[in-house]
Amino acid sequence: MTVFKPTRQTRAPYASDPYNARGRAIPQPSKSERSPFQRDKDRIIHSSAFRRLKGKTQVFVAHEGDYYRTRLTHSIEVSQIARSISRVLGLDEDLAECLALAHDLGHTPFGHSGEDALSKAMAPYGGFDHNAQTLRIVTHLESRYAEFDGLNLTWETLEGIAKHNGPVVVREADYKTLPWALRAIPDYQGLELHTYAGPEAQVAAISDDIAYINHDIDDGLRAGLFSVEDIMDVPFVGEAFADVRCRYPDISRDRMIHEAVRDMIGYMVADVLAETRRRLDKHDPQSPDDIRHLPEAICEFSAEFREKERPLRKFLMTRMYRHYLVNRMMGQASRVVEELFGLVISDPSLLPTEVQLNCAGSHTPETARVVCDYIASMTDNFAITEHRKLFTATVYLGG
């Protein structure tokens, strides 16, 4: 088989076709020349949840410095990589970009520490999962439109959000094990959660990996959590920095970091494209559904790169994600979420009036979900401010 090589006017046979999409839960006729996937992307960008990503942690708490990446800047960077890969593979760029922009909408304040704290608090009430929360946001919590709750996105976008990391269950019979928020989605079984996602969602997922690995290196170096010398022995990364030094012996440290990160992103994208083309040649898919029902992901890194990546992930875990300065921030962040949840679920009258309307008494599952949605939507700084107001008496007593 000759692998499909698209031009600007052509689309791969395995690409998602916006004009043959499976539709929206509430049918809406097109009122513009935008494709359905373009409309989905625009709805994501204009959503409240997307705007709030500017104040949510990637690794560093938002108030630690304006330079470090937030969920918003990360999502934009993921979308750029996803768009570039999709263009080369002949996929629908709008759908890939839409899924990249949407993939972190369900994140709590304070990154994974906030999610872990909220998951623990919600364990008796159906649990919490940020991917499921993203679906909850786009199908229910966003309240912008007169005719429906949520954003009324296309099936392909909802499927991509649910399954961008791969099948959610092994078999259809396993649906009862899903997180509560997923089971609460209307017609969640119709998302075919036991199969892989379409190709654009897979591109968005691999682009997320490329973006966060490289930009965490960038942020970690600039924050002083480790030095260029520390990372020179890490396969692939050390080679990139050594190559930049060789090409530009008098380059400044800041420019060297930028050039090396730039080269690493290019290297990883090239590896993904080569491996994806190999798998396309192997399986010869003729439609997005062919890709969904394959026994493996179609868009992946090569086995050789995965071997190189392991020492890098170990380095970042040890020297960045578990650095004592990050641990201090994240420990404080966990306590903020835990204490907010514990106080408010005991006394829902502390919630804003419009939020209280959906509560059903303290410590009930209904109230727990309302409190969870409220806290999960917070930015880092808003959560810190709310905690200060509720736990510091001097705020009220004028001290």
TrEMBL record:
Which key words are in the record?
Hydrolase
- Enumerate composition-biased segments (Basic and acidic residues): 31-41
Q: Where is this region: Disordered?
A: 1-41
Q: Which SUPFAM superfamilies match?
A: HD-domain/PDEase-like
Domain HD: where? 71-213
Family as reported in the entry's similarity comment: Belongs to the dGTPase family. Type 2 subfamily.
Q: Which GO terms describe its molecular function?
A: dGTPase activity
What is the name of the protein in this document?
Answer: Deoxyguanosinetriphosphate triphosphohydrolase-like protein
Q: What InterPro entries does this protein's entry cite?
A: dGTPase, dGTPase-like, dNTPase_2, HD/PDEase_dom, HD_domain, PHydrolase_assoc_dom
Q: Which organism is it from?
A: Algimonas arctica
Question: What domain of life is recorded for the organism?
Answer: Bacteria
Q: Which PROSITE patterns match?
A: HD
**Keyword Hydrolase appears in the UniProt entry:** yes
| GO BP annotations listed | dGTP catabolic process
- Do the record's keywords include Hydrolase? yes
